Amino acid sequence: MHIGFLGLGNMGAPMARNLLKAGHSLTVFDPFTQAVAALVEAGASAAASPTAVAKAGVEVIVTMLPTAAHVKQVYLGKDGLLAHVGQGVLLIDSSTIDPLSAREVATLATAQGNPMLDAPVSGGTGGAAAGTLTFMVGGSVSVFDQALPILSAMGKNVVHCGSAGNGQVAKIANNMLLGISMVGVAEAMALGVALGMDAKVLAGIINTSSGRCWSSEVYNPFPGVLDNVPAARGYSGGFGSDLMLKDLGLATDAARHARQPVPLGATAQQLYQTFSLQGHGGLDFSAIINLFRREA
Amino acid sequence: MHIGFLGLGNMGAPMARNLLKAGHSLTVFDPFTQAVAALVEAGASAAASPTAVAKAGVEVIVTMLPTAAHVKQVYLGKDGLLAHVGQGVLLIDSSTIDPLSAREVATLATAQGNPMLDAPVSGGTGGAAAGTLTFMVGGSVSVFDQALPILSAMGKNVVHCGSAGNGQVAKIANNMLLGISMVGVAEAMALGVALGMDAKVLAGIINTSSGRCWSSEVYNPFPGVLDNVPAARGYSGGFGSDLMLKDLGLATDAARHARQPVPLGATAQQLYQTFSLQGHGGLDFSAIINLFRREA
Amino acid sequence: MHIGFLGLGNMGAPMARNLLKAGHSLTVFDPFTQAVAALVEAGASAAASPTAVAKAGVEVIVTMLPTAAHVKQVYLGKDGLLAHVGQGVLLIDSSTIDPLSAREVATLATAQGNPMLDAPVSGGTGGAAAGTLTFMVGGSVSVFDQALPILSAMGKNVVHCGSAGNGQVAKIANNMLLGISMVGVAEAMALGVALGMDAKVLAGIINTSSGRCWSSEVYNPFPGVLDNVPAARGYSGGFGSDLMLKDLGLATDAARHARQPVPLGATAQQLYQTFSLQGHGGLDFSAIINLFRREA
Amino acid sequence: MHIGFLGLGNMGAPMARNLLKAGHSLTVFDPFTQAVAALVEAGASAAASPTAVAKAGVEVIVTMLPTAAHVKQVYLGKDGLLAHVGQGVLLIDSSTIDPLSAREVATLATAQGNPMLDAPVSGGTGGAAAGTLTFMVGGSVSVFDQALPILSAMGKNVVHCGSAGNGQVAKIANNMLLGISMVGVAEAMALGVALGMDAKVLAGIINTSSGRCWSSEVYNPFPGVLDNVPAARGYSGGFGSDLMLKDLGLATDAARHARQPVPLGATAQQLYQTFSLQGHGGLDFSAIINLFRREA
Questions:
Q1: Same domain (yes/no): B177, B158
Q2: Could you give the residue numbers annotated as active site of D?
């Protein structure tokens, strides 16, 4: 198929490469020309603007952008996709944005005859490169079925979450819980060790008890408990604290609009905000444990 | 062996019965005489006071009491165990109390020649009846080895957590994380559903993603997601909200003494405190989700 | 002067009446026609749309709208003020909205030759009726000076807070602190009384000590401490809990965009969110103390 | 009168000096012998132990100790005051401790014929030296009247707060609110300035609006707003962050025992705990604003 791809950052570039590898023809755009050049070298065609992608005769367009403001500009702006794309072209937005914005764009797209899905991902840059991302997809079943082969070229796990915007809902609900769990594990591990326990023994007990969770078992933030996690390498790599801060912001903002209390989500957001202000937003999100440990 | 047992409440009574079933001889005390009578009918001998238990020629004494104040009274009071028990008798306190109090009693016991362990449990009244409790044990390795056969008669999983008090540390660290996770799952599920997702679909995504945890997988608080959990039966049974409140209080209090920040633990404590004040302390602790859902 | 006025709700209507009383000529618009009719009876002219107000030959336009979305629609929409208003007409937005939106609108207005101020108010419907509002004004000094006579017809206290958007900043910073103080007073009063103190004695001590604040001295939430406050009349009247919730939402949202931690502000927001979900959003904001008191 | 005085620290020493200045005869004890020597030089007699003070023929004993554990030891220990003091001697404890401990000691003292008051102070070391402390006093009216002349020699403001323990209740309720207010002011000032406002202008608006409070008007934490406050001298002097942390700990602990929610109090406690862990516990408590400001 002929696919348009906008947004060739840390996530978008490897995703686009996997579409090329699967045999699709790609027309790509990114304001950062070096990112475009790299994809062209891999076999893609370059487009000079979103409008140019829309007019390139593509059957599908995938977008991977940093914020809702970017998504609105790319889709709804004067020179944006909706103003220039042909009827029937399938639109897939894999950006992580708030559900309200996702629904607003999808409603406008659908109204003018373009089926649209929100399809945010989890799995990080590693999963993007390996083609093992999880896609959480919102939109109608028939459009989901239509998109499945394309998404499967970039991910291993493609889950239908319900109607438009629900991909975003699933993403922010899960990631809010992830942020809460990670802070909770950090507090519990730091407390237990401060009270005299060995970190590995404590993690072992938690992991076989009612406190067990992904953050404790797979991604424990206490140094020395697990190998091959960011805690074992000075919290480099992984999922950045500022990205967790962004997702907690999306979740608490959506909660505000829905008038839903999320007291632990809001407190976790404030902790990552504090951590970021102290200059540590670039560290992996498990480094939040440093808020609870005396300087070594 | 001849074992003394003090504290025949919802947990202590079935634990004592399992010791009888394992062939041990029991001398029991509880201020509530009906609780004593029931155990006597099952084969135990009654004692009229802690002093009487201490003087009954027992080799081991197990205590299962509601608070640190009770533990201090029973062990350290004028008529308490330490004042009257023979040298060498093994003391095992299975109450859930703060680590500082546990260490204070253990230090005094050890100093006068009575080996002592703190051995709080998890598993609830069901685990107590079935003999499948988990024991988290603090004390020296040799005393742990000595106690293992006795504890194994009451539980399935007996874990050595390090020196005196560390059983309590493991218990409160795990349960603080449990309380945080449960509130986190409650917030995430209520938010996702309020934003338009189906509860089962959302739980399915969380349980295969980075948000997964015991509270979501095994004990999901949203009604209709799982069968055979308190959420499926109006939040009756299970682990009461007021018991979670007690454990969160022990954890935040220990954190205060250790000068360790536990912001999510403290917020979770306040939420259970609010829930209790509103009259719901008797409901299972997963009912905390009702703080985040509009009255049905 | 000939002044346009858009937004004739609980606040806007009495503000417009005070402009009429001061001798100004008014052209008004509100989608709710009864609100317009009432002002027409008082001497104003009716306009059928924002466009009509813009084209009515007014020298000044004042807007008093519920949300940033309304402000953007009224100013920036196709049929909005900026598209139709003559150059040089002074624009004053008295809505309480987020500073970013206020700055966005002011920048566009200024760029096309319309001086603009953000001028949110405090003082409630009582102050609006009595003409004793406080205006917190953002914009250049010269525009502020130009607007002073008009604002003075509606308020007693008109404060210049700096450049565009700073009126909103002052409003949300003050109201976030107000929300925090009110919850703090509620917690302290409820705790003191639960521990055995007389509410009036406690308030007296606080009001002569370092805990004193407007929420304690002037607006104490504990029933029986002050007369003539909402706490003395079942929390009716006053400043609604849902309005405090809105302002706390604006503050935490602005904090999120500025990456500023506001942990108490965020917690206060969650408490008002919980209170609103429980169905009490219509009560005065001092009723939040009911979250901390056992049902009478 | 002949007065015993125990606890000659930063607060106790100047308080004892004021009693000497008022013409009273003093017998003093402190484990730190240099502190005793300094008072002896000022005219007091030294005692070698609490027992010695109790047996020195004093009519009144005043204690000023750091924690409830010290108070219990000094009053209730084997060599403590209650075991050796003559009937009728008036006991005044000016330590800041939890109300439950205060009531426990007062009940035992009263039962053996020693009238007792809890009389914690506010006003800091400056007020202690100047004799301008505020005393918040719990106990019966007649005992309060009896103690008034003695307390008036050390303070300017002596307030009867109700029965035994209520002095402590008033102190911790006020100081919890103080801690909340200070953090609230810090958040609001930091947010407003981050959003573009001048700190002095913002403080001026808050101080004439509903956000005004002691922490903003008298003790503003933002540097440059006020002279002669800790913020103007690098947060040296004043009321230490670790002392605020202690008082917030007493308040949340009392709330836990009373089953009262104090969500902002608990969050404020966690923030001071974090600040202390980061090594800043010795700075004035208004320095908490540094948690919310980017490193200069």
A1: no
A2: 171
Residues of C in contact with D215 (CB under 8 A): 210
Give whole-number Cα distances, B248 to A114, A214, B147, B178, D221, in Å: 52, 22, 28, 10, 33
Contact (CB<8Å) B261/D255: no
Number of structural domains in chain A = 2
Q: Do A199 and A123 have their domain in common? A: no
pLDDT along chain A (296 residues), means of 10: 96 97 97 96 96 96 96 94 96 97 97 97 90 96 97 96 97 98 98 97 94 96 96 93 97 96 98 96 97 79
Which residues of chain C are within 8 Å of residue D165 when distances are taken between CB atoms? Answer: 195-196
Query: Which pLDDT tens digit goes with each residue over D105-153?
Result: 999 999 999 999 999 999 888 899 999 999 999 999 999 999 999 999 9
Closest Cβ opposite residue D277 in set B253, B259, B266: B259
Q: Which residues of D touch C191 (CB under 8 A)?
A: 172-173, 176, 251, 254-255, 258, 260, 262, 265
Could you tell me what percentage of chain B is helix, strand and coil, using 3-state DSSP and rounding each to the nearest 5?
Answer: 55, 15, 35
- Looking at the structure, tell me whether residues B132 and B211 fall in a common domain: no
User: Is B171:A135 a contact under the CB 8 Å cutoff?
Assistant: no
Percent of chain D topping pLDDT 90: 96
What does the pLDDT read at residue A252?
97
| A10 lies in the same domain as A151 | yes
Give the gap in angstroms from C-alpha C21 to the nearest C-alpha of chain D.
27
Q: Is B163 exposed, middle or buried (0-12, 13-18, 19+ CB in 10 A)?
A: middle
The answer to whether residues C108 and C66 belong to one domain is yes
Residue B172: its pLDDT value, please? 98
CB contact under 8 A, C267 and D271: no
Domain at A195, CATH number: 1.10.1040.10
Residues A159 and A191 in one domain: no
Catalytic residue among A78, A171, A200, A246: A171
D238-282 per-position pLDDT tens digit:
899 999 999 999 999 999 999 999 999 999 999 999 999 999 999
B293 vs chain C: nearest CA distance in angstroms? 7
Give kind and range of the element (H or E) at residue D72: helix D68-76
- Give the nearest partner residue to C277 out of B263, B274, B294, using CB atoms: B294
At which of D164, D185, D215 does a domain end?
Answer: D164
Structure tokens at C57: 């030959």
Q: Chain B, 218-277: which have a CB under 8 Å from a chain C CB?
A: 263, 267, 274, 277
Chains that touch C (3 or more CB pairs under 8 A): A, B, D
Q: Which of B105, B134, B163 is the last residue of a domain?
A: B163
Q: What is the CATH number of the domain that holds A6?
A: 3.40.50.720
pLDDT of residue B295: 61
Subunits that touch chain B (at least 3 Cβ pairs < 8 angstroms)? A, C, D
Which residues on chain D are in Cβ contact (under 8 Å) with B256?
249, 252-253, 269, 273
Chains that touch D (3 or more CB pairs under 8 A): A, B, C
- Assess contact for C39 and C16: CB atoms under 8 A: yes
For residues C115 and C135, the answer to whether their CB atoms sit within 8 Å is no
Task: Write the single-letter amino acid at C244.
Answer: M
Chain A residues inside the 8 Å CB shell of C78:
none
Using CA atoms, how far apart are residues C42 and A290, in angstroms rounded to an integer?
Answer: 64
* Residue ranges making up the domain that contains D89: 2-164
Shared-domain flag, residues C199 and C222: yes
Q: Shortest Cα distance from D268 to chain B (angstroms)?
A: 9
- CB-CB under 8 Å, D219 with C195: no
Joined tokens for residue A257: 């609009």
Query: Are C17 and C159 contained in the same domain?
Result: yes
Residue A2: phi and psi, rounded to 5, are -100, 115
CA dihedral D128, D133, D136, D142 (to 10 degrees): 90
pLDDT of residue D271: 98
Taking only the tens place, the pLDDT of each residue in D275-291 is: 999 999 999 999 999 99
